[in-house]
Amino acid sequence: MSNDIEIRRLDGLNEQRRAFELFRQAMLGLPDLGKVDPEGEGRYLKDGKPLGAFGPSGLVGVVNGYASQIAVPGGRRVSHLSVTHVGVAPQATRQGIASRLLTEQLRRARAEGYVVAGLRASDSRIYGRYGYGTASWTVRQELDLACARPAPSQGQAKTRFVDIGNFDLFRKIADADPAPRPAQLIRWDAWWAMQRLRLDHASTPHYALVTGPEGAETGFLRFHTEASDNWLISRSRTAIVDDLVAHDAASWQTLIGHLFTQDILHRAIFPASAVDDPLRLLVSDPRSITFSGLRDESWVRPLDVGVLLSARSYREAAVLDIADPVIPENAGVWRIGPEGVRRDQGPAEARLDIGTLAALFFGAQTASLLSQAGKLHAPSPETLERLDALFSTGRLPHSGISF
Ligand SMILES: CC(C)(COP(=O)(O)OP(=O)(O)OC[C@H]1O[C@@H](n2cnc3c(N)ncnc32)[C@H](O)[C@@H]1OP(=O)(O)O)[C@@H](O)C(=O)NCCC(=O)NCCS
């Protein structure tokens, strides 16, 4: 069936709306925001670059993408196609349509100069086959504010509440992060448009506070309260943290510290923290935090291995043999080292596929663990130890946003 399929770019707002509708139809559980707020939906869709798959009956599959950037270890950023709205009509699944769309999208993105593609997966079994690898993970933290106390040193700086709809300010602060974790994304217009749509149609109150001098803020916290049958007498009044950006340790401590000053609250939930989030170190009683829901976060697909590997520096040299069945220009032996990155004749010290490279490069996994899981092949423990040191990142990768 997939041979009768034509794939082409969808242009103009009408086709974009049609693509989004098909995606929602495939997802089943998503609300139709366009019905209540067509203008908001238009703002959200307008910069997307959807591809459509057409069969004899018309549009049967879609995949969309937005231009953004992702931070690599060391803090530089490279271009990132934020892939989203992957959907195939319910009557047309399991015929290879998503495979055609996703591989076509990768080839086009590489030709357009994107260094990586990245997405959040509704199902973690789908994307590995196209060369996406898990480049960051998240964990859910539930903080018992009634039991926990912040360590005494924190919370010196001031916070101030700001209008929750002041997205220009949040955007300015997020984009100015001077030391982004690996895998942190520059958020694009449509991402902010979706935040506004969600806020405009939210059923519970939302709040935002910032820290740092006015005009030179160094962090913000956005949260909402959990729906409750009777907030007044509830014994589990909960704040759910939607977004937390802090440029430095003091800002982070101040913003978290604010939650402890709200006596009305019993709990705070951080749905998708970095796996090495230091919250457990901030509180005097680490058992006041319940950890759950360890989940894959960033799925990243290197599109241009030479440019990606060159975006950070290396203390030592290593020679890697990379397999990439979809983009042959990436495949083969690469030498990385203090002098830069270049093609090599080999022999390679380690063999891995393109998705595993994403996990290794962003620091989501060490070479030793990847080897133990059979994902990376290296001849000796000494080589693995060297690769562990070479790709180690101070902090684990984390994006902190979904899309
Ligand atoms: C996921 C989805 C896009 C797959 O579309 P599709 O056209 O059926 O996919 P394909 O026929 O190209 O299948 C690709 C491969 O993935 C496998 N696959 C597809 N859906 C899968 C699923 N939900 N779980 C596990 N494997 C799946 C297929 O078996 C096939 O494997 P193979 O290449 O080894 O034969 C489609 O089921 C869909 O629209 N689902 C709902 C929306 C959704 O979840 N989108 C993803 C948002 S991130």
Set out the fold topology.
Elements: E1 6-9, H1 12-27, H2 33-36, H3 38-45, E2 51-55, E3 58-71, E4 77-88, H4 97-111, E5 116-119, E6 133-134, E7 137-144, E8 159-162, H5 167-175, E9 185-186, H6 189-200, E10 206-211, E11 219-225, E12 238-246, H7 249-261, E13 267-274, H8 279-282, E14 289-296, E15 299-302, H9 305-310, E16 318-323, E17 332-337, E18 340-343, E19 350-353, H10 354-362, H11 367-372, E20 376-377, H12 381-390
Parallel strand pairs: 4-5, 12-13, 16-19
Antiparallel strand pairs: 1-2, 2-3, 3-4, 3-9, 5-15, 6-15, 7-13, 7-14, 8-10, 10-11, 11-12, 16-17, 17-18, 19-20
Helix pairs in contact: 3-6
Descriptive report:
The structure is a single chain. The protein has 12 helices and 20 strands. By secondary structure, the protein is of the alpha+beta class. It has 3 domains: 2-114, Gcn5-related N-acetyltransferase (GNAT) (Aminopeptidase, 3-Layer(aba) Sandwich), CATH 3.40.630.30; 138-294, Gcn5-related N-acetyltransferase (GNAT) (Aminopeptidase, 3-Layer(aba) Sandwich); 305-390, SCP2 sterol-binding domain (Nonspecific Lipid-transfer Protein, Chain A, 2-Layer Sandwich), CATH 3.30.1050. Strands 1, 2, 3, 4, 5, 6, 9 and 15 form an 8-stranded mixed beta sheet that branches. A hairpin with a 2-residue loop joins strand 2 and strand 3 (58-71). The site of coenzyme A has 18 residues, from helix 1, strand 4 and helix 4.
